[in-house]
Amino acid sequence: MKILVTGAEGFIGSHLIEGLIKKGHKVKALVLYNSFNSLGWIDTFQESTKKKIEVILGDVRDKEFIDKSLKGVDVVINLAALISIPYSYKASRSYIETNVNGLLNILSASINRKIKQVIQISTSEVYGTPKRVPIKEDSIINAQSPYAASKVAADQLALSYYKSYGLPVSIIRPFNTYGPRQSTRAIIPTIITQALNSDKIEIGSLFPKRDLLFVEDTVEGIISAIGNKKSIGNIINIGSGYEISIKELVKKICKILKINKVLKTKKIRKRPNKSEVLRLLASTQKAKKILKWSPKNKGAKGLELGLIKTINWYKKKENLKYFKKSNFYY
pTM of whole model > 0.90? Predict the structure, then answer.
């Protein structure tokens, strides 16, 4: 089966490509065109792995390019997105152009090219602060940031193409994914890099709780949807089913590193009060039933094991140099 992955150069996309190759799939990787000639994390792959990937440079916002890119493809997995919540406050229109209009181009081209399945990658941010947990897929949608609003629109657009045109669409909704290669803007890499390199740790709000999903589990969840007919027309959460506050997360990371650091909150790192999502905890019953998927890294012990792997990766300075060399959007 030939699979086109958009957003292939990014954090989750690069891990997904590796997972697909291991499963024996043919991979076509769409990388956002840039003047640096950078393939993102794909540049770090071994040559033997690179040879198994068909890399194309382009942009999901280009309708004609997307249509040509889908020729000969069986399945599309759409990870192309602007994801930084703080930046979405400043440049909301760009989120609509990429996250919504980019998906529209994929959906339209998929009908034209008779694609067997489109897997749209959503986000738990669409739920906002929930009225009850764990969060099920039929919970109220409550976008609290322009980023979240763009993903709500994208999900609904994808479902509308399933209902209106019969396009085989599956929506996989990961909760907070973490692991090696994640941007140092994200909460876990932010804590780790400050803990390793500074005398204090400065973050935003301490009390929001998050369901943290190790990237290997996210990848397995996405792959399990490929060719799964029961996933068509469905939204499916994938998460660890365990929550932890940001404050406790800092303590856990410092404990693993066997260090003590001064913890400070910094106003510039906080979301606007009404935009802050206070709690995210996934119900994974649907994933277990339809995808036959459950995370390998679950509970407090699973989180600790995932954090250890992540910390060890960030300890290697040669890994961090790629953040400076590349133009990362994911």
Answer: yes
